[in-house]
Amino acid sequence: MAESSNAASMDQDTARQLFEEGATLLFLNVPLGTEFGIDYNTWNTAEHFKGVKMIPPGVHFVYYSAVNVRDRCTAPRMGFFHCFRRREVMVLSWSKRDEDAVEHFLEDGEEAEYRGRLREFDPCLGSYPYESLKKWVSLTSHITENSVKDLMPSCQRIYSAPQLIADDETRTTAERAKLAENQRLEHPEGSGVSAEDLLPRMHSKPGTEIRFSPIPDKNYPVGASPAEITKYSMDLSYTLENMLRTRYPDRPTAILGEIQFAFICFLVGQVYDGFEQWKRLVHILCASEESLVAHQDLYASFITALHFQLKEVPADFFIDIVSTDNFLTTTLREFFTNLQGAEVGQPLKVKGRRFKESLTKRFRWDFDALPDEDAPVVVQL
């Protein structure tokens, strides 16, 4: 990991101040060539790498992958969010057995001791790339320390590959053989038996799931009339208000922290479940017509958050991933239609219109054209 270019060009007084006031992540015994990253920056570690210095206080995402130096094969990514304090020293070390980082929880005296040794570690520490900080802040502006505590898995690791275990890990080889024999007797001709029948069923290892907000099963209230069921199947305001009341009762804009958390999990952490949750939450906000009027501050911030997120994906990103169900263009078309007809303040309408124009310019999306299913049908007489 080389010194970042901005650290090299930074004047000595500024660099000294950042070194003293910023946080430090010590990452010890990391194998040569390991993929390591913080926020939007990724490197392969050099021989004497021991961590990163001058980390700005706030929420950051640290991640890494073991690399087989011989064939350059990279293991699935692992990482975690952490809210770094001013002058904090965090110490990790690499476990060869687990191929994972182990955190050393420091008492106050131990942290002070490590801080006193930072000059010793300094030649082996990379500088946080400050040129990317503005971009990172724009993508995480609503992620707070509470967001991290609420959403991080209880195991305190985010895995790009699902951590699966068998439903019954205690089943012995003899028990599996007996199961196979029973199935053979029940189906002597082999009908209905397949190799899959003999495999254990898998599920996520407890404690490894990201604790995203559950989406309510029903999008209408108990005892709703047929008219209300129809209404709230189209206008998802009841679903959104239910989620805000359950998960974010004191500050509705905190749901944007979850949207940003899910987006970072997908974009940087390579977690597909993050993309799925991001899609669900974006769709619910875009399709909630009544809530648009009730939470105008939330929607103004939502437009800003979505604007910065879509700036970070390639122009053909949604063509490759979303075009199968045309998710984003359909969802945003509904949002812009709701916004145009809603009784909201002029500043929100203007902000929505500018957002729409910027998307049309970049992605060539036409939000004013009728979707295929709504287009008039031409009948030949």
From TrEMBL:
> What InterPro entries does the entry give?
AAR2, AAR2_C, AAR2_C_sf, Aar2_N, AAR2_N_sf
Instruction: Please indicate if the UniProt record lists Membrane as a keyword.
Output: no
Segments forming domain AAR2 N-terminal: 21-153
Q: Could you tell me the keywords of this UniProt record? A: mRNA processing, mRNA splicing, Spliceosome
The biological process GO terms on file are: spliceosomal tri-snRNP complex assembly
PANTHER family hit by this protein: A1 CISTRON SPLICING FACTOR AAR2-RELATED, PROTEIN AAR2 HOMOLOG
State the protein's name. Protein AAR2 homolog
| Originating species | Acanthaster planci (Crown-of-thorns starfish)
This protein's gene is called LOC110989193
